[in-house]
Amino acid sequence: MKKYAFNEITPMQYTLILFGTQVGTGVLALPRVLAEKSGTDGWISIILAWALNSVAGLLILSLFKRYPDDTMPDLLVRLFGKWLGKLILLPLLAYFAFFSWTSLVRGLLYVKAWFLPKTPDYIVMLLLTVPVFMVVRNGLRVQARYSEIVFYMTMWMPFFLLFLLSRGHWIHMLPLFKEGWWPIVKALPTTLLSFLGIEVLYVLHPFLQKKQYAVHGFMIANGMTGLLYLLVVIVCYVYFSPDAITLYNQPVLSLLKEIEFRFLERFDMVFLALYLLVISRSWVPYIFSTVFCASQLLGKQDHAVPAVCYMIATIVLVFLIHPTWNESDMWVQYQLYAAPFLVYLLPLILYLYVRGLEAFRGRQTP
């Protein structure tokens, strides 16, 4: 019997979890960030980041193809033994916990800025974490269903941006390669940060029912993310001038203010309220990965207790720190430093180690 058979998910749910994990609050400011670094050639950085992310994801999947029923905690223990494996797991656990924290804080700051400016931040965090806890504690299958429902509820949202293309000027996109390739390459680290989310494969892969579709699901999810980012960035570049777009903190929300209906005055507020559901799809897998790794580290099968402890810790930290936008940006920069090692370098090292181990055992076999 499979170790994780009780919580198995379908290929569709697997794809939508990956897609939901990659799309968070970063897309709201992405056009401005790319414009500051590479002008209106920033959309080329998205294509390059998509390609690099695809290679990294395929590398992770090729590693788990050799051990299809193992999560990353299981694999580390298998390869390096109980104590060393758990020691190597600690940085990954810290990464998941920190990424979950920063994602929740970004969501908290958006809610405070747009909806509840006078509500204490720890109360807002409580309102955000309670429903997340209810989803996380019930296992991956419930999370998969939640991700599926939210996707079908919100899949119409990107298409509203197309209404503004008729008011834009495509001349803003020209000429291509205004300052050469260097600004485009310089924007790659920031763009790759927006594509983060594939690292949940470390935990997600053994739960997939039909593992022969793992590569298909990943490529579809990563492609959907790339297409969404391209749509958002290109619409913003076409609508705003190359200089004006850098003046808006979140160009996407400023863009939504331009959409008007006779029966609805502030479409951007409605959009952002619904977008919180989209953002929550990135919180849930990261928090689940955090508490799953913590329970594996402690040798426990039930991750409900680590989930409760993590939720309480986030609320207490918000009460003590009262995070600001500047602090949130600083924490995002820390992610930018840590992600290349744990998302791109770690699977490469493990893959080469496994291949070397297989070659060594092959030579030892008479």
Topology:
Layout lengths: L10 H12 L3 H13 L3 H24 L6 H9 L1 H33 L6 H16 L3 H15 L27 H5 L1 H7 L6 H4 L9 H26 L11 H6 L10 H32 L5 H18 L3 H40 L2
Helix pairs in contact: 1-7, 1-11, 1-13, 2-9, 2-11, 3-9, 3-11, 3-15, 4-5, 5-6, 5-13, 5-15, 6-13, 6-14, 7-13, 13-14
Number of strands: 0
As a whole number of angstroms, the C-alpha radius of gyration is: 21 Å
Q: The CATH topology, please? A: Amino acid/polyamine transporter I
Assign the CATH superfamily.
Amino acid/polyamine transporter I
Topology as H/E string?
Answer: HHHHHHHHHHHHHHH
CATH class: Mainly Alpha
What can be said about the biggest beta sheet?
A: none
Range of helix content:
over 70%
The CATH architecture assignment turns out to be Up-down Bundle
For the residues shown, what is the average pLDDT?
A: 84
Strand content: under 5%
Low-confidence segments, ≥5 residues, pLDDT <50?
Answer: none
Overall structural class, as computed from helix and strand content, comes to: mainly alpha
- The N- to C-terminal Cα distance equals 32 Å
Domain count: 1
Shape: globular
Counting copies of identical and different chains, the oligomeric state is single chain
Q: Given the structure, what is the number of helices?
A: 15
Transmembrane segments: 12-30, 42-64, 84-102, 122-140, 149-167, 187-208, 220-240, 270-292, 304-322, 334-354
Pfam families: Spore_permease
Membrane topology: Multi-pass membrane protein
Protein name: Spore gernimation protein
